[in-house]
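Support request, priority: normal
Reporter: lab tech (M.K.)
Component: structure prediction queue

Hi team, I submitted a job for Carnitine O-palmitoyltransferase 1, muscle isoform from Colobus angolensis palliatus yesterday, and the status page still shows it as pending. I've pasted the exact input below so you can check whether something in the sequence is tripping the parser. The sequence length should be 756 residues. Please let me know if I need to resubmit or if it's stuck on your end.
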Amino acid sequence: MAEAHQAVAFQFTVTPDGVDFRLSREALKHVYLSGINSWKKRLIRIKNGILRGVYPGSPTSWLVVVMATMGSSFCNVDVSLGLIGCIQRCLPQGCGPYQTPQTRALLSMAIFSTGVWVTSIFFFRQTLKLLLSYHGWMFEMHGKTSNLTRIWAMCVRLLSSRHPMLYSFQTSLPKLPVPRVSATIQRYLESVRPLLDDEEYYRMEMLAKEFQNKTAPRLQKYLVLKSWWASNYVSDWWEEYIYLRGRNPLVVNSNYYVMDLVLIKNTDVQAARLGNTIHAMIMYRRKLDREEIKPVMALGIVPMCSYQMERMFNTTRVPGKETDVLQHLSDSRHVAVYHKGRFFKLWLYEGSRLLKPQDLEMQFQRILDDPSPPQPGEEKLAALTAGGRVEWAQARQAFFSSGKNKAALEAIERAAFFVALDEESYHYDPEDEASLSLYGKALLHGNCYNRWFDKSFTLISFKNGQLGLNAEHAWADAPIIGHLWEFVLGTDSFHLGYTETGHCLGKPNPALPPPMRLQWDIPKQCQAVIESSYQVAKALADDVELYCFQFLPFGKGLIKKCRTSPDAFVQIALQLAHFRRAGWCQGPLARFTPLYIPGQGLCAGYGGEKADLRDLFQKAAKKHQNMYRLAMTGAGIDRHLFCLYLVSKYLGVSSPFLAEVLSEPWRLSTSQIPQSQIRMFDPEQHPNHLGAGGGFGPVADDGYGVSYMIAGENTIFFHVSSKFSSSETNAQRFGNHIRQALLDLADLFQVPKTNS
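Reply from support: The job had stalled in the queue. We restarted it manually and it finished. Here are the results:
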């Protein structure tokens, strides 16, 4: 336990001669440097808070206003229209700093200038908020921008042109509007019309009208009231009731995974890859803390909300019997590491200095070389985070609320993130399609006890240097973790680099204390709970069929030639594939069930010519894009109905319409994975620097989970999940249907394809 003693600043021994103190200069140095670093961070946050608070103003702009006011006064021009004189008369009389007329005049001008400056900032912010409430640009055809939208874009650029920090626009973003109940119900009925026969639709229509006329007005008033004081009337309820109150295991049901670059490999050395990667992650966290990351901007001009980024690091989902809680710390100086059934605490800093990649490589190699066996109950301990939430909450209270177990658990939960060092090797071999699916399965659930599913994310490292992430979903959506991952992979490949032998550049510091083993005292009763949670998680993991594949015939380059959006093209292909899965259509094209009525005739057996089918396709694509844009502007269906349902429960009001709508299973849950959120490199010059995206488990027991990433001009990655226990689903078969649907849609437009 030498490393533990090195962390103690002083020790004392009581002897007959008195108390003998022994100080550790090295430990005291670390404590001192840690304190200095902490104060630096506080000062940076104070400075950023001030700069963010006055955006789009700045201290320089304040000085300009003050100098302009004083200059005009010396030229005998009163720009204040008498206000400076009023301020001067209101200043206290007598001795002190106000005793001379010159001082009083200067102070009055400074006060007036500050008032003008603050008022201008408020005016600019409100003007920007009003401008950002305009959504007409989203509904205009590509290349057909109206004059109104051009003027709007110029005004937005003008008000947001001064180098913003990450959270500069937060107070200027408009609140999420509450849609009209009539509009939401109309869009809902339109979306389900193709799914229901005439009798079923008439029944649903009657339920909807009854709800709209009798129950909805009262519920809507509460939502409108909430929207007045909350910036987003949905987000807190969605986080609590969709995620944190869920009592089912996180593994497969909630957590999702993200893959590494799959067509290139920077190094085969596991510890070296971790050294560069974790150094890049903490560099990103430093930028995040200092708000040096640019806000994500739609079209390069419309700022998006950055709130979810706040909880990316130092965050853990803590289990509760009724609801979980997201615990977020302002800082953490270590990561928790799992390897061969042992848990370690690895410091990221030496004093106030972030460890360099070569130092981190050395520390991880020390863990890999550590021959010590797991302690009793330690190996499968993380299975508690993979089992039921109630069981985990009870075990946490009973066995981890005191002593060494509490200290060890806190070391994990208070870590910046979790790192899993696997002994297996996974990678994508284009000649072996199954390799991508096996890689995805390892990231989704591992062996059910080598991931800490409660952490905001687990960095997974395989023996061959391949990496991946397993992310908890409650704290943020996938694009947020994707933003981090793009930065990390770009920094690893183009800024840090490796030696010819695959190690990190530079020489490590061998004097660094080794990582510290966490100590546990896990009784037999707790071990039984761990085993029970493991069996629950293993049953879930074994039931998941995951089929991942790279679609090579074409990508967004060809889709654009079809004069439609790539997302709409893929979504329609998914609906076509889902329709065909049970053999409902004998021809090459079928209807798109959730995409309104225009899709009903897209079946060759229906007798349509290609021109007619293309027209139906364009109508369906246009409808999809319109619904997608409405959802982006806050006029989506599910969030509004969900909140109305919650209000009805709070008020004890029964609604057959809401109960039926929210009980409908989502048998096809899809998600597009964004890419190139950060321009770390030119994809045209480095076409093989492609990630394969990521995936998630099926939402319904008899359904599919499909995620896809349109990875450049010539390829698309798909991740299809289902359950073996359902006789209705087969992930690989559905994946093949997706392939064929994409090809059939391309044939509609007679666009030549590359080799498949």
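Residues 101-132 form the longest helix (32 residues). The chain is about 45% helix and 10% strand. Let us know if anything else looks off. Ticket resolved.
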